[in-house]
Amino acid sequence: MQPECRPLSAAQLALMWPIECAAHRFPWSESLLASSFGERYLCVGLWSGVQLLGFYVADWLLDESTLHNICVDPRYQRLGYGALLLNDYLQRSAALGCQTWWLEVRNSNVGAIALYQRYGYHQVGCRKGYYRSDDGVEDALVLSRLQGSGE
Ligand SMILES: CC(C)(COP(=O)(O)OP(=O)(O)OC[C@H]1O[C@@H](n2cnc3c(N)ncnc32)[C@H](O)[C@@H]1OP(=O)(O)O)[C@@H](O)C(=O)NCCC(=O)NCCS
Prior knowledge:
Layout: E1 4-7, H1 13-23, H2 30-34, E2 41-48, E3 51-61, E4 64-72, H3 81-95, E5 100-106, H4 110-118, E6 122-133, E7 136-146
Parallel strand pairs: 4-5
Antiparallel strand pairs: 1-2, 2-3, 3-4, 5-7, 6-7
This protein binds coenzyme A.
């Protein structure tokens, strides 16, 4: 069965939470994840039938959107699902009128950075010591994408 992207609702939080915890070294709190639903939010899952494989959370305002979270169940990473989610996000937000996209990513997250670059994101800034890390703190790279960039 070909996985497909479908919007998530708060009722599906119990499916999102284990993936959040398994995918991230420093996961969001459950209450932060629970605040990802609403008019200004795009909260979309990648589904194989009734199984949730991954999801993303973004917000949007006027012609700009920020991606706050994207993760794939570690059992199913490197199968192209992160790219499916990112592609869905860019298409959905563009359909809402977005023309500029933002995100922050850990300096050490080479896999995610490679994925974002493939989709036309490029670094526009750096927040020093922004994230907690095993060694203390680590920098956040600020990436931006303009309409028509990348895949
Ligand atoms: C980042 C993440 C969502 C990518 O999902 P995924 O399903 O594994 O990614 P895909 O299989 O779609 O990969 C698409 C491309 O991204 C790049 N990529 C993804 N993971 C990579 C890795 N670990 N190392 C290098 N490149 C990687 C590659 O270019 C890859 O294409 P390829 O497989 O043809 O080489 C996933 O690794 C994840 O959930 N990570 C933990 C959470 C996280 O760090 N989220 C980002 C926070 S900003």
